[in-house]
Q: What sequence folds into this?
C-alpha cells in the first residue's frame, strides 16, 4: 500500500512538469506521440529494461538473465537507470521513483524528443506501413500465444524454449531495408502439380479444351521448371522468412527432418515479427539518442526547465550520460546533430554575405569583421530576454510572437518569469536558440575554409544582392538549421547519417581517431585521425547492427537438399567458433546438413616473425572456406577464389593501419 501511495504522490508532483515539457516540445517544433508516464520502483525498472521497455513479454529464461545482469550492473558497477521509453502510440515511458526531481525532468524532456523521433522517422514506419504502432498490444498477444503453447500438455515446454533459443540466434538476419510483411502472406499461392488434374475436373471444362491447353507436355514442363528452379532465386537476406517457407525441424527421436508443427511455424513468425519491430530502434540508435539528448539539453539548460536549485544535479546527470565509456551513441549523436545545425546555419550566413557588393570568396576573410557579424547574429533582446515588465513592448503582429499567448500573459494567466518561452512562436524560439550565437560556437563562421567558400560561391545562383553586411545578416533565416534537422530526422538511419554528415572538421573538433590491434606487438595502437578512416570504423559498427551479413544462396546445394549460406565478407573475418555454434542452430531449422561459405585471413608464421623484426604488420592472405555441419560434426574445406569472389569485399577496406604508427 505504501509503495502505491508513494507512486501516486510522485505522479502528482510530476503532473506539471509533464504537461509543460510537452508544451515546450511543441513550441520548439517537435510533434511527438502522446506519452503515458508510469512511476516504477527499482525492481520494476530492471524488469522493464529486461523486457525491452514493455510490461508483458513471452515467457523465456533470457528475460531473467537480462534482469539479473541489469540488477548486478546497478549494484556493483554504479550504473543508474534513468528511464525507458518504447515506440508506441501512445508511447509509454517509465520513471524510477527514487530519482531526484531534476532527473525526472531530464527524463521527461528526453522522452518527448524520443516520441517525436518515433512518430516521424520513416524507418519506424516500415514496420507499420505508415500506420501508428500498437506494439504493447502486439507483444501481449505474442506472450499469450507462446504461453498457451508452453502450457499445452501435448507440447513439451522445454521444446518451446529450445525453439525460441534457436530462432533468437538469427533474429538480426532479416531484410531490415524492406517493409515488414507476414511470411504467411508471402507464401506462394500456387497449387501442387499433382492436384491440377483434380482441379481441372472441378472446373467442368470440355475434354477438348483440357487436352488443348493442359496436355501432358505442359504438365511435364511445369515439373521440369519446378525441379530446376533454385531456391531462393536470388540470395535472400531474411533468413527467418526463408525458414518459415522452406525449413524443416530436426526430430531427435526420428533422426531426420520433419515438417514443422503448427506451433513451431507460429512461434517462428511471432519472433520474426518482433525482430522487424525492434529493427528500427537498432538502426537509429545514434540518431535517436542524439536527437533526444540535443532537445533535452536545450529544454533543461537553455530554457531553464531545470530550476536554479536543480541545475547542478541535472549537469551531473547529463555528464554521466554523455561521459559513458566506449562508443557512446548519446555523445556521438548529439555532437553530430549540433554539427549539422551549425553547418547549415553557417552556410546560410555565408550565402548571404557572398551576395554583398564587393565580397567574394577570395577576399571573404580579409574584408569581413567577424566580431561584428557575431554581434548581429545574436538574438533580438525582445525574444531573448522576456519578463513581465517587457510584455507591453512585445508586438502581437510580430511573426516571432504567439499573439494568443501574449494576450493571456498580459492578463496574468501565464507565468512568464517561469515560462518565458510560452509567448514565443516557433520563429521566435529558433532565433532565441540560434546556434551560431551561442558562446561555444563563436568562430564557426570565421574558420570557414577557402575551399568551402569557393564551393558555395560556385553554386550560388543569381539572386538578391545586398548593399552592406548589415542588410545581408538581417535576411538570415534563423530556422534553417532546425528545418534541415527535421528533414534528416525523417529519412535517415545511423549508417546514412554518419556516412553523409561526418566530416574532417567534425572529427578534428571532437577528437575522434581510429585504433587497430597489431599482430607484430600484440597490442592496440592509434592509427588514423582521417575522417574517412573514422567513418569506415563507425559504419562497420552500425551496418547490419554490427553483425555479419548472412544470406541464403541455395536450398538444394549440390542437389542434396543441403542448405548453403554465404557470409558477405567486408574485410572482417567471422568468429569461426561462434559461426559453428550458430550453424548448429540453423541445422535445427533446416533438418539437413548446412553449409556456410566465407572468407578468412591467414597469416604465415614465418611472415609474422619477419614482420615483427621489421616492426611492420604482416600481410594476411584471404582464402575461401566452406564450413559444413551434418548434425554430428563439422568439416572445413578450401574453396577456390571464384567460389567466394561474389561475397568478398572489393573496394571496402576497414584496415586503417598506416605505414608508420601515429602512437
A:
Amino acid at each position: 500500500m505504501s509503495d502505491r501511495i508513494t507512486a501516486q504522490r510522485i505522479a502528482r508532483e510530476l503532473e506539471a512538469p509533464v504537461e509543460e515539457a510537452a508544451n515546450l516540445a511543441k513550441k520548439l517544433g517537435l510533434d511527438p506521440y502522446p506519452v503515458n508516464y508510469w512511476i516504477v520502483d527499482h525492481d520494476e525498472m530492471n524488469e522493464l529494461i529486461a523486457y525491452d521497455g514493455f510490461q508483458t513479454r513471452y515467457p523465456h529464461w533470457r528475460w531473467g538473465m537480462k534482469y539479473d545482469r541489469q540488477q548486478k550492473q546497478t549494484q556493483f558497477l554504479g550504473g543508474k537507470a534513468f528511464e525507458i521509453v518504447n515506440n508506441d502510440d501512445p508511447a509509454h515511458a517509465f520513471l524510477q521513483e527514487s530519482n531526484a526531481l531534476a532527473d525526472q525532468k531530464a527524463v521527461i524532456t528526453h522522452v518527448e524528443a524520443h516520441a517525436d523521433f518515433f512518430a516521424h522517422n520513416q524507418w519506424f514506419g516500415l514496420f507499420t506501413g505508415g500506420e501508428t504502432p500498437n506494439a504493447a498490444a502486439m507483444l501481449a498477444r505474442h506472450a499469450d500465444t507462446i504461453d498457451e503453447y508452453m502450457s499445452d500438455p501435448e507440447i513439451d515446454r522445454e521444446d518451446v524454449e529450445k525453439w525460441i533459443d534457436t530462432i533468437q540466434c538469427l533474429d538480426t538476419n532479416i531484410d531490415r531495408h524492406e517493409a515488414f510483411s507476414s511470411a504467411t502472406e508471402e507464401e506462394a499461392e500456387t497449387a501442387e502439380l499433382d492436384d491440377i488434374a483434380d482441379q481441372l475436373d472441378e472446373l467442368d471444362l470440355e475434354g477438348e479444351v483440357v487436352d488443348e491447353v493442359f496436355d501432358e507436355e505442359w504438365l511435364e514442363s511445369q515439373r521440369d521448371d519446378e525441379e530446376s528452379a533454385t531456391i531462393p532465386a536470388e540470395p535472400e537476406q531474411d533468413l527467418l522468412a526463408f525458414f518459415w517457407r522452406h525449413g524443416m525441424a530436426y526430430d531427435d527421436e526420428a533422426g531426420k527432418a520433419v515438417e514443422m508443427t503448427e506451433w513451431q511455424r507460429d512461434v517462428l513468425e511471432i519472433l520474426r515479427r518482433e525482430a522487424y519491430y525492434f529493427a528500427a530502434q537498432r538502426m537509429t540508435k545514434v540518431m535517436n539518442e542524439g536527437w533526444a539528448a540535443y532537445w533535452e539539453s536545450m529544454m533543461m539548460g537553455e530554457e531553464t526547465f531545470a530550476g536554479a536549485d536543480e541545475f547542478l544535479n541535472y549537469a551531473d546527470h547529463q555528464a554521466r550520460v554523455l561521459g559513458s565509456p566506449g562508443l557512446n551513441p548519446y555523445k556521438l549523436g548529439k555532437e553530430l546533430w549540433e554539427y549539422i545545425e551549425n553547418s547549415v546555419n553557417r552556410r546560410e550566413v555565408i550565402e548571404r554575405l557572398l551576395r554583398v557588393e564587393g565580397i567574394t570568396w577570395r577576399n571573404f576573410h580579409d574584408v569581413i569583421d567577424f566580431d561584428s557579424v557575431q554581434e548581429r547574429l545574436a538574438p533580438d533582446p525582445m525574444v531573448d530576454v522576456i519578463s513581465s515588465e517587457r510584455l507591453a513592448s512585445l508586438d502581437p503582429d510580430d511573426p516571432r510572437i504567439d499573439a494568443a499567448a501574449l494576450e493571456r500573459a498580459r492578463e496574468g494567466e501565464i507565468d512568464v518569469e517561469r515560462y518565458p518561452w510560452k509567448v514565443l512562436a516557433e520563429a521566435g524560439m529558433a532565433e532565441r536558440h540560434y546556434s551560431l550565437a551561442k558562446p561555444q560556437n563563436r568562430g564557426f563562421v570565421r574558420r570557414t575554409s577557402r575551399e568551402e567558400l569557393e564551393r558555395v560561391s560556385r553554386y550560388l545562383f543569381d539572386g538578391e544582392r545586398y548593399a552592406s553586411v548589415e542588410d545581408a545578416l538581417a535576411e538570415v533565416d534563423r530556422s534553417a538549421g532546425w528545418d534541415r534537422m527535421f528533414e534528416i530526422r525523417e529519412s535517415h538511419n545511423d549508417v546514412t547519417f554518419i556516412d553523409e554528415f561526418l566530416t574532417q572538421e567534425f572529427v578534428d573538433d571532437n577528437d575522434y581517431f581510429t585504433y587497430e590491434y597489431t599482430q607484430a606487438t600484440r597490442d592496440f595502437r592509434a592509427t588514423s585521425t582521417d575522417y574517412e578512416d573514422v567513418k569506415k570504423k563507425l559504419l562497420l559498427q552500425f551496418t547490419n547492427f554490427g553483425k555479419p551479413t548472412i544470406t541464403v544462396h541455395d536450398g538444394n546445394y549440390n542437389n542434396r537438399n543441403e542448405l548453403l549460406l554465404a557470409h558477405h565478407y567486408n574485410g572482417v573475418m567471422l568468429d569461426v567458433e561462434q559461426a559453428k555454434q550458430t550453424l548448429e542452430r540453423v541445422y535445427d531449422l533446416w533438418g539437413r546438413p548446412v553449409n556456410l561459405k566465407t572468407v578468412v585471413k591467414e597469416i604465415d608464421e614465418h611472415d609474422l616473425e619477419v614482420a615483427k623484426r621489421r616492426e611492420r604488420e604482416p600481410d594476411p592472405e584471404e582464402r575461401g572456406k566452406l564450413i559444413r555441419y551434418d548434425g554430428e560434426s563439422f568439416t572445413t574445406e578450401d574453396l577456390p577464389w571464384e567460389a567466394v569472389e561474389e561475397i568478398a569485399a572489393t573496394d571496402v577496406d576497414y584496415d586503417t593501419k598506416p605505414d608508420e604508427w601515429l602512437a
User: Anything to note?
Assistant: DSSP finds 30 helices and twelve strands in the chain.
